[in-house]
Design brief:
Number of domains: 1
Shape: globular
Strand content: 5-15%
Radius of gyration: 18 Å
Structural class: alpha/beta
CATH architecture: 3-Layer(aba) Sandwich
CATH topology: Rossmann fold
Order of helices and strands: HEHEEHEHEH
CATH class: Alpha Beta
Oligomer: single chain
Number of helices: 5
Distance between the termini: 48 Å
């Protein structure tokens, strides 16, 4: 009987983890005045860009940084940031680094060149925890203030996410990337 009770507890705990798995990924801060908005590339770029432009339009930042393009532009010129530019991955990073990690390192380099010390990171809701984990390792020391704002133009999966193939892919991919980040950090 004890074995059965233990099995039920384990199954219920696992079911709870599955149901609430996306909740951990959906990290968000309220927006606050910063030097720059850092915009990440991805499948939902249009929605992410809309959020970045909205934040800049609301006066939250003076610069837009798109690290995958190696670009930083002043707030009024955000249309120029991605015009006729092809994203490229700088070759001087270890091949094990995941692209978002490279983008965050590049964002820091761009910000450091300009003397900027605060940023709002914008991406999809399910990417925000990973971005925060990586940014907390890259933007170290008390000199930087980071804020994480998911786009409001892309709705996170809710409810029975594990019944939708697209949500299953997003959640499992994010957890895999988070795990990979922690693993390759120790391999360096």
């Amino acid at each position: 009987m004890r074995t059965f009770a233990a099995a039920v507890v384990v199954i219920l705990a696992f079911a709870g983890l599955v149901v609430y798995a996306p909740s951990y990924l959906f990290y968000a801060d309220p927006p606050r005045k910063s030097d720059a908005v850092v915009l990440f590339l991805g499948n939902e770029y249009k929605e992410r860009r809309a959020e970045a432009v909205k934040l800049i339009g609301e006066g939250y930042a003076a610069y837009l940084v798109i690290p995958a393009y190696g670009r930083m532009v002043e707030a009024g010129k955000h249309g120029e940031a991605s015009r006729n530019v092809v994203p490229s991955r700088p070759s001087h990073y270890p091949v094990v680094y995941e692209d978002t990690h490279v983008e965050i390192i590049e964002a820091k380099k761009l910000m450091d060149r300009k003397g900027l010390t605060s940023a709002i990171f914008v991406s999809s809701p399910h990417h925000m925890r990973r971005i925060k984990l990586i940014a907390d390792r890259v933007f170290i020391g008390g000199a930087y203030v980071t804020t994480f704002v998911p786009t409001r133009f892309e709705k996170p999966g809710q409810g029975f996410w594990f019944l939708r193939e697209s949500d299953i892919r997003k959640v499992t991919s994010e957890y895999g990337k988070i795990l990979w980040f922690f693993l390759y950090r120790w391999m360096k």
